[in-house]
Amino acid sequence: KTIQVELAEKRYPIHIGSGLFEKLPQFLEGIGWGRERRLMLVADSHVSPLYAERVLKPLEQAGFTVGQITHPAGEESKSLHTLERLVEDCIRFGLDRSGAVLALGGGVTGDLAGFLAASYMRGIPFIQLPTTLLAHDSSVGGKVGVNHPLGKNMIGAFHQPAMVVFDTDVLKTLPEREILSGCAEVVKHALIWDASFADWLMEHHRQLMALEPEVTAEAIERGCRVKAAVVSQDEKESGIRAILNYGHTIGHALESVSGYGAFTHGEAVAVGMAGAALLGEALGTATEVFPFTRELLAAFRLPTHLSPVWAEEELLAAMKRDKKAKKGAYTFVLPTGIGSVVLQHGVEEAAIREVLARLRGGES
Ligand code: NAD
Ligand code: ZN
């Protein structure tokens, strides 16, 4: 299946399916890339031994020159330090402005290698080759970047990929917890945009968790369609794109307070979506969204409650530091129903405290 992302100044395809890495040379031809373009394949230390060869072989057989960089797996690699090493490898390889980057991996490699492409020699093209379910989200939309010790994604750019090729075969080796983490972003895309997608997920959650090929491809496709639709309306996030942060205000705070690692990104966002549902009900933007939200997340064995270990004051402080926060006021994406949300600025602290308490209580 192929989806087109339509932007003001360009468009690019997302290919989703089984065995697609073998077709990479044709896909490159499709976007007008010839053999003279040197390619640098970036992957992490888990993904590289599993899949680099699957990408390299067809490309080399087709006559492409491909260099290879492996960075350590994990969020810590999304750093300026790692970026500097990647740049060094690119220079030594002789990558120039006619070259391109192939980002093979999850969101960490996609964000890191994408930012390499955005900044190397003031910007060269790149292709996203996502290998996690979560990366159906991160590989589309052009947000790339690295972390700073004082904050996640603090250094970055908008740099759209020239193409996304999601070969679903690679998901077979994904650890269980990473599958469920990716399911959280699939659920997010349904909850913000498409009630029938949410119902479909409820019906097919077992097949998706078991990675049944047809259901998995459909879930990725529908998730990418939502992402592409939102991004095409607002590429640089001056408005509606912010709805993609549903569940992320509390989610990011939880990740930050717990020190990145206690939760997967999806687990933290799941708690955040449960919180946003409760907050929406409390503030009157929606009624009766929490029960379905909780049920859907629980179906994917995702958490919807908050352990008392994470102190309320620290969570609130982290929410205030959020990039999206304006003048210290709290900004939330709140549900208006299942499948629709609204961006709400200036949410009162008292309401958030109440929701945090309910997330800790028996309620969820
Ligand atoms: P990740 O890239 O760290 O991958 C998770 C783990 O799975 C890693 O250990 C990785 O080595 C391993 N892995 C990846 N593919 C595998 C495979 N096929 N088989 C076996 N193991 C595999 O993490 P992620 O969850 O994919 O992405 C999280 C990152 O994405 C965060 O840094 C987050 O900020 C970012 N993100 C970015 C955007 C965006 O729009 N740019 C959106 C959402 C998330
Ligand atoms: Zn996310």
From TrEMBL:
Its cofactor is NAD(+); Co(2+); Zn(2+). NAD(+) binds at residues 107-111, 131-132, 143, 152. GO terms for molecular function: 3-dehydroquinate synthase activity. Residues 182-325 form the 3-dehydroquinate synthase C-terminal domain. Keywords: Amino-acid biosynthesis, Aromatic amino acid biosynthesis, Cobalt, Cytoplasm, Lyase, Metal-binding, NAD, Nucleotide-binding, Zinc. Its EC number is 4.2.3.4. InterPro entries: Dehydroquinate_synthase (IPR050071), DHQ_synth_AroB (IPR016037), DHQ_synth_fam (IPR030963), DHQS/DOIS_N (IPR030960), DHQS_C (IPR056179). It is found in: Cytoplasm. Pathway: Metabolic intermediate biosynthesis; chorismate biosynthesis; chorismate from D-erythrose 4-phosphate and phosphoenolpyruvate: step 2/7. Its main location: cytoplasm. Residues 69-179 form the 3-dehydroquinate synthase N-terminal domain. The keyword Secreted does not apply. It catalyses: 7-phospho-2-dehydro-3-deoxy-D-arabino-heptonate = 3-dehydroquinate + phosphate. Binds 1 divalent metal cation per subunit. Can use either Co(2+) or Zn(2+). Zn(2+) binds at residues 185, 248, 265. SUPFAM superfamilies: Dehydroquinate synthase-like (SSF56796). Belongs to the sugar phosphate cyclases superfamily. Dehydroquinate synthase family. Catalyzes the conversion of 3-deoxy-D-arabino-heptulosonate 7-phosphate (DAHP) to dehydroquinate (DHQ). This is 3-dehydroquinate synthase. The gene is aroB.
